[in-house]
Each structure stands twice: as C-alpha cells, then as structure tokens.
C-alpha cells in the first residue's frame, strides 16, 4: 500500500465511481496499463509535471495518449492535472488495486520457491492460505529463489509463512547452538 493520503483519496473516489457504474474490472485493467506506461516512461511524468506546459496541453496530451482508456480514468487524470497531483498516478493505481482486491475478497501474495509453481500448486496454496488471512482467494506472484534449497516462503501483506528448507536448517542450527 502507498503512503500517499492523496493517492488513497483519489483511488477511493475512482473505485466508488467504478463500482457504482459496474466497471471495476475494466477500470482496473486500464489502470494497470496506465501504471505501466508511467513506470516505463519517466519522461512522461516529468513532462506532465513541467510548469512550461499549460494545463490544457497536458490534458490534450493525456487524452491523445490514452484515448482508448475508460472515461472514468481520463476524468481522473484530468482532475490530477488540475490539482497538480499527476505524480500520484502510480500510487493511485496501487491503492485502487487494494480497494478492488479487498472488495473481491482477494489478497496479493508473493510465493518464493526454487522453481515455478504449477497451476495446481498455486491453487492449493491459494486455498490453504486465503482462509488464514480471511480472504476468499490469493493472487499469487511466484518468485524464483534458489537460496531456499526447497519448500516455499509465502508473503501476504506483512505476514510471512516460511516452510523453506533453508529456514528449517537455520532454526535447527539455532536450536543446536542454544542447547
């Protein structure tokens, strides 16, 4: 989650509008593309923050660049330009994603393993751990980490479940040294 209060407020407003209009899914998809565009092109953010470019030109530029985007997103971008908050776009997307996940009963999870997980393994991890965090399912991001030796390490928010071989060896080492 972002630490930006402004991003949280804009994301909540956009989320409520999208939910009211039944467009949460399409808005989220467009926002992910928007985030990618801003992250891949740092010059775009700098250009939109520049005082040399008028507000009207900034809005025209955004409308041209994202003409296929949902109108709710274009309106939000326009408001961000007006309020000189365009630098909050990436944080806004993260916050919107968090609101959408919360409403759908989904949690983001990072699963560290020594190899790519199969679909069945991902599904069983999602089923087992979703209940532990009070969600219906997990959206898993599988990260390959050969240092684990075996097993998995799961991170959901600020919770970590570590059943990796390297962690078990470390616990055994502490127990032996402590005895």
Automatic annotation (TrEMBL):
<keyword id="KW-0406">Ion transport</keyword>
<keyword id="KW-0375">Hydrogen ion transport</keyword>
<keyword id="KW-0139">CF(1)</keyword>
<comment type="function">
    <text>This protein is part of the stalk that links CF(0) to CF(1). It either transmits conformational changes from CF(0) to CF(1) or is implicated in proton conduction.</text>
</comment>
<dbReference type="Pfam" id="PF00213">
    <property type="entry name" value="OSCP"/>
</dbReference>
<dbReference type="InterPro" id="IPR020781">
    <property type="entry name" value="ATPase_OSCP/d_CS"/>
</dbReference>
<protein>
    <recommendedName>
        <fullName>ATP synthase subunit delta</fullName>
    </recommendedName>
</protein>
<dbReference type="InterPro" id="IPR000711">
    <property type="entry name" value="ATPase_OSCP/dsu"/>
</dbReference>
<dbReference type="InterPro" id="IPR026015">
    <property type="entry name" value="ATP_synth_OSCP/delta_N_sf"/>
</dbReference>
<keyword id="KW-0813">Transport</keyword>
<keyword id="KW-0066">ATP synthesis</keyword>
<keyword id="KW-1003">Cell membrane</keyword>
<comment type="similarity">
    <text>Belongs to the ATPase delta chain family.</text>
</comment>
<comment type="function">
    <text>F(1)F(0) ATP synthase produces ATP from ADP in the presence of a proton or sodium gradient. F-type ATPases consist of two structural domains, F(1) containing the extramembraneous catalytic core and F(0) containing the membrane proton channel, linked together by a central stalk and a peripheral stalk. During catalysis, ATP synthesis in the catalytic domain of F(1) is coupled via a rotary mechanism of the central stalk subunits to proton translocation.</text>
</comment>
<keyword id="KW-0472">Membrane</keyword>
């Amino acid at each position: 989650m972002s630490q930006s209060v402004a991003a949280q407020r804009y994301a909540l407003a956009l989320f409520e509008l999208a939910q009211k209009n039944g467009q949460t899914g399409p808005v989220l998809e467009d926002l992910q593309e928007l985030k990618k565009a801003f992250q891949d092109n740092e010059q775009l953010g700098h250009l939109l923050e520049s005082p040399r470019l008028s507000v009207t030109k900034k809005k025209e530029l955004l409308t041209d660049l994202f003409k296929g985007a949902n109108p709710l997103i274009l309106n939000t971008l326009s408001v961000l330009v007006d309020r000189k908050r365009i630098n909050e776009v990436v944080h806004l997307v993260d916050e919107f994603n968090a609101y959408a996940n919360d409403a759908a009963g989904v949690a983001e999870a990072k699963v560290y393993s020594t190899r790519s997980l199969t679909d069945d393994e991902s599904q069983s991890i999602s089923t087992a751990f979703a209940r532990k965090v009070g969600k219906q399912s997990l959206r898993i991001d599988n990260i390959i980490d050969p240092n684990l030796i075996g097993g998995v390490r799961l991170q959901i928010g600020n919770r970590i479940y570590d059943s990796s071989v390297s962690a078990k060896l470390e616990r055994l080492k502490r127990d032996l040294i402590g005895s």
